[in-house]
Amino acid sequence: MEEIVSLCKRRGFIFQSADLYGGLNGCWDYGPLGTELKRNLKDYWWRKMVQEREDIVGMDGSILNHQAVLTASGHVGGFSDPMVDCKICKKRYRADQIEPEDLICSEKKQGKKEERLCELTEEKDFNLMFKTKMGASASDDDPNAVAYLRPETAQSIFSQFKNVLDSSRQKIPFGIAQIGKAFRNEINPRNFTFRSREFEQMEIEYFCHPDDALALCDEWLETRLSFYEEIGIPRTQLHVLDVPDGERAHYSAKTYDIEYAFPFGIQELEGVAYRSNYDLTQHKTHSGKPIEYFDEQAGEKYLPHVIEPSAGCDRTILALICEAYDQEELTNDKGKVETRTVLRFKPSMAPIKVGIFPLLKKNAEQVKIAKEIERELSSYMNVFYDEAGAVGRRYRRQDEVGTPYCLTIDFDTLGESGDELKNTVTLRHRDSMEQERVAIEDLLPKLLKLIK
Length: 452
Ligand code: ATP
What we know:
Number of domains: 3
Number of helices: 12
Bound molecules: adenosine-5'-triphosphate
Distance between the termini: 30 Å
Number of strands: 26
Largest sheet: 7 strands, mixed
């Protein structure tokens, strides 16, 4: 894992937030390549879950949530984790996630460091929500001034269910999808971005008739597993946990956790939960407003049930990086064994699709053609122009950030080996390292096909 964290910083995928000042615990900033990777993931999710489906519409709710919404949903009263403190070293732990090696505390006694087992307090509930005050004149005791940074994107979907239904003219079954930030004051952020205090979710609330709910829950599990395969996380690396009775929320008759084999253990990527009509019932009761669905054909009025596939964007990014990371030994032209670090991203996810290199930066004609190709391709995909150093080194730099294709413009492009190769370039494939000659005029259609 350390190698991956270090690569992420070195190559501009992910930095600790406020790195200059020692870091802000549980918060991360995505650098230039991490941002591209995240955009690719979110765009693909949106395309598959919203754009290509007639039964799902999108929304983009506010991050600041009204306290009434989160009181109705149960978050104000009960969105907490069990917390314990060590009476000696004062360290805080999430009680249900303590590893034995965590429980060592060191004390200084008469100048000497002594290690012993932590002595823990009783468990108490720690609410994970970030509370804030709204309005310039908000006083400390004005309950109407209290707002929360949303702990999940789902509640704005539930509280806007009726408005979306009325404005989109969808019919049951249909879903509302949202991608956005969520905030949880986690007791122990850990495992790089896996458990953060600020993170992004990709959530769908799929509203249905209660009779169809259990079958739809299984269908959604399959849809989501296929999605992970399509983006480059094979099924063999995924585990499905059918959450047993007693461990599910009291209103859920079925919940699956989709887990991934991270280097630090098998951990949750996404939950696919059948939540009955719990949330809509809560919002109807607390708001006192009619939010039922009316099925004209059946003449039936009811509060729909819901299936919730709720995925973590940052956790999926981390899984994509872990899955793509590879080191292989190669023998170079001089017979020396070298290690090649390569991120084997699917082309659709790769932050840079094509590296473009003139073989010699001093050759004005090669540079001119390379720049023309860069200009043409960059309207369609993210490309990177590089003229510094030996071409082999440039390939390695692109391998390390997962660029699936590189183009080299050389003397053959200029026609120095005859007309046959004139106006062709070398297209080099990252995984096989094979090279082929492609005519410049064929590059765009060929690459568009390859990266789709
Ligand atoms: P966990 O048990 O790991 O705390 P959860 O079951 O509370 O997660 P949900 O409330 O189901 O998580 O949230 C849906 C998804 O949001 C999770 O599957 C995960 O991918 C993501 N997520 C939740 N908490 C965090 C976090 N602290 N950091 C990053 N992603 C998170």
